[in-house]
UniProtKB/TrEMBL annotation:
Single GO cellular component term: nucleoplasm
Domain of life: Eukaryota
Annotated source species: Heliornis fulica (sungrebe)
Name of this chain's protein: EFCB6 protein
Coiled coil ranges: none
Limits of the EF-hand domain: 193-253
């Protein structure tokens, strides 16, 4: 039968390595012949670039804590100007700008970063590996202290740890914007505010009910919207206990 002969010939062609040489000269058999492909110059250039691509995708996340601590004080006094300059470059409001634009802003505000420090910072905050700098995350880490550090930046400032350890929630952009907005006001009156927090905390647990927490903020003319309060509680009250650690809240601003 013709069909059986064709299937037999095709199976024979697939099992015999020399079958590639038996095809017509004008038909290119190079993709179907794995043994001859390594000898092609074009194939060599493709395989030589492949290891570099895989290595670039496995770049570890850099720890720039030393660099961030170095410029933290400088940024705390001018972060609003830096944020405004970054937003002007961020036309699409994506929270990121080209690295070249950030370098110009860093030079404008005299951050005094060496070439090596710039390379580390820009590599860390190139979150999408697309050559753009996530300035919102950068400013959040330099202005707010949301993660505890082994060595406090100011040894004189002692914030009592709550009896119940906090289980932080997600650091959303809305949460960061709310915290950055009230940061100057909290820094201005955090010491008396801490004493007021303690006066409401009769059980000395380090935790306050949400209504009391908001009342203290209101007493010091720090008014947050319902949306801002929601995002703050989403971070500080992850387990929905209706209580917030005022020590952890203050610690985010005191550096």
């Amino acid at each position: 039968m013709p069909s059986s002969n064709s299937s037999a010939s095709s199976s024979a062609a697939s099992t015999k390595p020399s079958a590639c040489d038996m095809q017509k000269p004008h038909v290119s058999s190079e993709p179907e012949c794995p043994k001859t492909s390594p000898s092609l110059p074009g194939q060599k250039s493709v395989t030589s670039r492949h290891p570099q691509t895989t290595a670039a995708c496995s770049v570890p996340v850099l720890n720039c804590e030393t660099i961030e601590n170095k410029i933290r004080k400088s940024i705390q006094h001018r972060w609003k100007g830096i944020l405004k300059a970054c937003k002007e470059k961020d036309v699409g409001k994506l929270g990121e700008i080209p690295v070249s634009d950030f370098l110009d802003i860093a030079e404008k505000f005299n951050l005094n970063l060496s070439e090596g420090e710039i390379n580390q910072i820009t590599t860390k905050y190139d979150l999408k590996k697309n050559g753009r700098f996530a300035y919102c995350d950068f400013l959040q880490n330099c202005v707010l202290l949301l993660k505890p550090q082994e060595s406090p930046l100011l040894q004189k400032v002692i914030i009592q740890k709550p009896q119940n350890l906090m289980s932080p929630g997600p650091q959303t952009p809305s949460f960061s914007r709310a915290m950055l907005r009230i940061q100057p006001q909290v820094l201005h009156c955090w010491r008396p505010m801490k004493r007021t927090f303690k006066s409401y905390d009769e059980s000395h647990t380090g935790l306050l009910h949400i209504a009391d927490f908001r009342q203290v903020l209101h007493d010091y003319h720090i008014d947050v919207t319902e949306e801002e309060l929601f995002h703050i509680l989403e971070y500080y009250d992850k387990n929905l206990s209706s209580k917030i650690s005022y020590n952890d809240f203050l610690q985010a601003f005191i550096q």
